[in-house]
């Protein structure tokens, strides 16, 4: 439909190529929340199906003070981006992959989850309703944040009787600093992020705040972020607080394997592996000892928010190692290919982009 009405009577213009833009200084976008017009909400009670779901004005939500989200961390989030192409059309990057990841997380946290089709449709509706907030091509993207939350009360530990699936969005630019300047990482030697059999491999809300104190310590010393090591031995590289990590040595690209369930299976991670293989690199998913990272030619991070960001240095036990970051780096080649596909500059032979 070219127009749709929200429950409060607001009309949304569904014409994707409309030239209208929100009043945003697109050159100054960073990674912070800019409130947009609408969000999508869909609810269900345990044992029942989700309701129809609808687009409503962006705003606060109500939940029980005794909700399992707030008390027991029964919540998941996702992150994906919508990009504007040169012709003004808007596309999403692999939204089905986020839907599948949310489904896996929901099973782990005993929550009902939307079907893949419902998830993707909700994301599309959210983007369309907020299309004036999708930055012009090359100026950033619309970051879409689907949430799945236990909203009902459970005082004794148990699953919530009620759930909400919500999708909101914000225009964003670079995550760490403008121009994707290289990150300086500090290897965290006190805290561990996840252990085998735990929840490190799902996008539970509870995986992110435990990172904050280590991150704050590192930032106070001038680092961009922290790099976590494995919980059992403190020997192998796992992930940075908000992204996955890769090391390059010659034409071999290595990244920590996700098979132990301690590392978030990033959709950008997976896509970069596929792009690297297609470009002729050898890719190894395996245990990566921290010493190997320190000995790499290049190091970079991947994630929806960080895209592909070079690492300028890693500091471990007082030793700082600096990496190649100038010229034709592997990181730059992978970044250009990925963002080329995402913005329509490069043909999407993988079939990753989905029209809104
Ligand atoms: C993302 O990259 O989309 C994430 O969810 C990481 C988040 C901590 C910003």
From TrEMBL:
Q: Which reaction does it catalyse?
A: L-valine + 2-oxoglutarate = 3-methyl-2-oxobutanoate + L-glutamate; L-leucine + 2-oxoglutarate = 4-methyl-2-oxopentanoate + L-glutamate; L-isoleucine + 2-oxoglutarate = (S)-3-methyl-2-oxopentanoate + L-glutamate
InterPro entries in the record: Aminotrans_IV, Aminotrans_IV_CS, Aminotransferase-like, B_amino_transII, BCAT-like_C, BCAT-like_N, BCAT_family
Q: Name one GO molecular function term.
A: branched-chain-amino-acid transaminase activity
Cofactor(s) essential for the protein: pyridoxal 5'-phosphate
What Gene Ontology terms describe where this protein resides (cellular component)? cytoplasm
Its Enzyme Commission number(s) read 2.6.1.42
GO annotation terms (biological process): amino acid biosynthetic process; branched-chain amino acid biosynthetic process
Record key words, sorted: Amino-acid biosynthesis, Aminotransferase, Branched-chain amino acid biosynthesis, Pyridoxal phosphate, Transferase
Identify which top EC class this enzyme belongs to: transferase
- Residues recorded as bearing N6-(pyridoxal phosphate)lysine in the entry: 203
Q: Which family would the database say this protein is a member of?
A: Belongs to the class-IV pyridoxal-phosphate-dependent aminotransferase family.
Q: PANTHER family given for it?
A: AMINO ACID AMINOTRANSFERASE, BRANCHED-CHAIN-AMINO-ACID AMINOTRANSFERASE 7-RELATED
Q: What is this protein called?
A: Branched-chain-amino-acid aminotransferase
Instruction: Supply the source organism for this entry.
Output: Punica granatum (Pomegranate)
Q: Which gene encodes it?
A: LOC116194876
